[in-house]
Amino acid sequence: MLRENHLKDTMSLTIKLYYWPGACSMASQILLADSGLAYEAIKINLQDPPARAEYMRTLNPKGQIPTLVIDGEIITEGPAVITAISQLVPEKCYTGSTPMENVRFYEWMNFLSGTVLTKSFGGLFKPSWYSDDPSAAEGIIAKSKVNISAGFQLIEDRLEKLSDPTHALGHSLTGVDAYLAVFITWANRFQIDISKYPNYRKLFDSISRTAAFKAAQEKQV
């Protein structure tokens, strides 16, 4: 584990999270707020060419957020960032509290980051990621909304099978919950009707009432 190898004293760590308001980096901010770890949140504007170039040169050549830096160790990609945070505070069980929950965590995260984020919301945020033809934007946006509906229905169906749909894994906050909560904030931003997903709404209502969510939300400006 990261903690066992070279992060034995979390009180002495230098932790930095590079983020952009309203982006998927909010999920990492929710967990960091809940963890009690001291960290520095650094806003990076990837729409500013000089800032983006410097960020890619020194931190993340993929030009994406979040990027987590722990005592100089650079960690990219949301699921990896959440795993690193979890390893700093293993008692929080942000990636699940049992071996099977840990498997389910990565099952969820691959779906959320690879399908719901990239294949769905990505087309709403920036259609040009998917085509250089400006005339294709309308079709990309329309298809993205179809994909979001399909993804949200899969999430709803999965949560419906749980005895406690207020958490995706077990009965406490995990990285999956944090990501799911962020996606609802995006749905609200794009005026996507979430009334068809009552269990998903229960999860969001539960997470959004937490102090960690509220603390992270304050940084989304």
UniProtKB/TrEMBL annotation:
Residue ranges occupied by any GST C-terminal domain in the UniProt entry: 98-221
InterPro entries associated with the record: Glutathione-S-Trfase_C-like, Glutathione-S-Trfase_C_sf, Glutathione_S-Trfase, Glutathione_S-Trfase_N, GST_C, Thioredoxin-like_sf
Occurrences of domain GST N-terminal (ranges): 12-93
GO molecular function per UniProt: transferase activity
DNA-binding as UniProt keyword: no
Keywords on record: Transferase
Keyword Signal assigned: no
Family: Belongs to the GST superfamily.
PANTHER family: GLUTATHIONE S-TRANSFERASE GSTA, GLUTATHIONE S-TRANSFERASE-RELATED
Name of this protein: Glutathione S-transferase GST-6.0
Native organism: Cercospora beticola (Sugarbeet leaf spot fungus)
